Amino acid sequence: xxxxxxxxxxxxxxxxxxxxxxxxxxxxxxxxxxxxxxxxxxxxxxxxxxxxxxxxxxxxxxxxxxxxxxxxxxxxxxxxxxxxxxxxxxxxxxxxxxxxxxxxxxxxxxxxxxxxxxxxxxxxxxxxxxxxxxxxxxxxxxxxxxxxxxxxxxxxxxxxxxxxxxxxxxxxxxxxxxxxxxxxxxxxxxxxxxxxxxxxxxxxxxxxxxxxxxxxxxxxxxxxxxxxxxxxxxxxxxxxxxxxxxxxxxxxxxxxxxxxxxxxxxxxxxxxxxxxxxxxxxxxxxxxxxxxxxxxxxxxxxxxxxxxxxxxxxxxxxxxxxxxxxxxxxxxxxxxxxxxxxxxxxxxxxxxxxxxxxxxxxxxxxxxxxxxxxxxxxxxxxxxxxxxxxxxxxxxxxxxxxxxxxxxxxxxxxxxxxxxxxxxxxxxxxxxxxxxxxxxxxxxxxxxxxxxxxxxxxxxxxxxxxxxxxxxxxxxxxxxxxxxxxxxxxxxxxxxxxxxxxx
Length: 503
Hints:
Elements lengths: L10 H14 L6 H12 L5 H5 L5 H26 L8 H9 L1 H31 L10 H19 L3 H31 L10 H4 L12 H8 L15 H30 L10 H12 L6 H35 L14 H14 L2 H4 L3 H33 L12 H22 L12 H24 L26
Helix pairs in contact: 2-11, 4-10, 4-11, 4-16, 4-17, 5-6, 5-16, 6-7, 6-13, 6-14, 6-16, 6-18, 7-13, 7-14, 8-11, 8-12, 8-13, 10-16, 11-12, 16-17, 16-18
């Protein structure tokens, strides 16, 4: 009960719980299994066209992303999740609650939920563009077609998730298998293309590998790279079930990082080999590459099959994310931070009204596709806003990890970032510096895309950040004592302020 609600457990009780975990053998997940869970969360073929825009430079961008984002996020997640296991899907809400209190904890979970909502139209537009290749590729950049498919698929996914976790898990499993097949295929085709002596659309040189440090817009796609590799903190729920977390977490992290980075780099290069940079669509770039490969190898009949495989893979990704962050928001709702109407659940713990609210917001956001010059530009501006909001959440997470090293030094940490407090400072500062820098460059539109008015682009991002952060603080300020949903056994929650203290 204690950790489920983020309440500070007395040290004696905490040690007792950890001892019980060992005795009952709950640490049953090996490091390879954990690595596969991480990989399923952070890798998707959807991000390949975005990185293909950078050509050979994609290698540098993904290396930077790993150093400043993926590895620091993974290590901090490992320590926080193994120390404060989120029994109720609270995740980042629990951690920030322990370090900074309820106000900032709610902001963190609200941003995780809201960026996820804003991200949905991007992955759904990718599904629409890919599906077009199954019957009419010309529709891939048609905004009305994209809007209709996005709405139908998302609402269908919402109703599927209302049936419960089993349905969602089945769809997600099918999606992972499909994603692995299509990734392997595009990599094999791409490198066979080069080995066979065909012309490449990109240059292989040191100049094309290193980012242009004289131009700020050359770093803009770093924000997209962040979105591609973000989300590993979602695997935190498994931390308390990992065998030998001190050794297992680093090995699992580095294996999943290596495989995901390798898959993204090789897959994006395969696209860049055959599709000129100026012609790469952020939503249809993967299918553009498959179309050229299949035409060259006289395998055109495979195009609709591959399109359907990619769609199934992306549907699995969507299904997994429709429910996850919503359940995290549900934990904060039960803490009295959202009105009772948003606490209603069905089929065990499915937050039905939060899912409907989420679907309504997504419905409103997809009309941005009608306002932007192209589908690709709409895809990017939503990706950029997603990255900005996610970065703010990560900044709170890194800060919380630092604070807890000093605020709660007495707490046993099954996995601890090596190097004592110095090691924590090093990891957290990498993440904080990377986050602040990417927040800054996120306001520069990429030169490769037609994003319309600079004023509209920057105003949209600024307004999006202000609205989402402002909404969190407004809701927190309007909270009422009657919103707390507390079972008799959890009565202490009503007086808990989130920092281990009581009012």
